[in-house]
Amino acid sequence: MDPTIVEFIGEKCMISIIPNFSNEPLHLIYGSVGPFRAGFPVFVPLWLAAHLRKQQKCRIVPPEWMEMETLEEIKEEEKRSKFFTKMPSEHYMVVAQLVMSTAPDDVPRCEELRTIIKDIFDIRESKLRTSIDAFIKGEGTYAKLDNLTLLEMHSVRPILPYSLDHIARYQRMATASQRDTSMMNTTGGGTGTGSMSNSFFTQ
What we know:
Domain GINS subunit: 65-166
CATH architecture of the largest domain: Up-down Bundle
Distance between the termini: 76 Å
Order of helices and strands: HEEEEHEHHHHH
GO cellular component, one term: CMG complex
Domain DNA replication complex GINS protein PSF2 N-terminal: 3-61
Region (Disordered): 181-203
Pfam families: PSF2_N, Sld5
Structural class: mainly alpha
């Protein structure tokens, strides 16, 4: 999956804005949003929120999870647990990046949030790569990883074909080695029996 597709999917997330204009509902392909009333919050797709914000027609209301206290708890839990913690949004990186790049003035402690969200992503990436490494070394053929987001799965996608190919080659080599060993044992056993028979009749 192309990174732009991952971003496209993430931009469909709904987010609250406070418009500074009034308008009837907008009828989009996958549903209607609005009506818009100046000063009253309304939920719209993230891509529309960014579009309106660039035109200075609204203020974006950051999601509840985009607070330092919440993210610090998530970061600490991610560091403590060997498993992946459930993130507050399936597309947390896409949402955070677009909101903070489009409307930094609407996000309290924006730079601090940017840093801690990147920290969380890096911790999870490191944990994911460690899991893949253990999977390869353990010669596994099946793995289950819960609570990964689409972007995180996409980030390690390039190394997965190599990993699976490495495992397949190892398994083929192991199977061939076992087959050769079995054939050698069978051949060796037959030769031994023949020698004993010849020796018996010679006597």
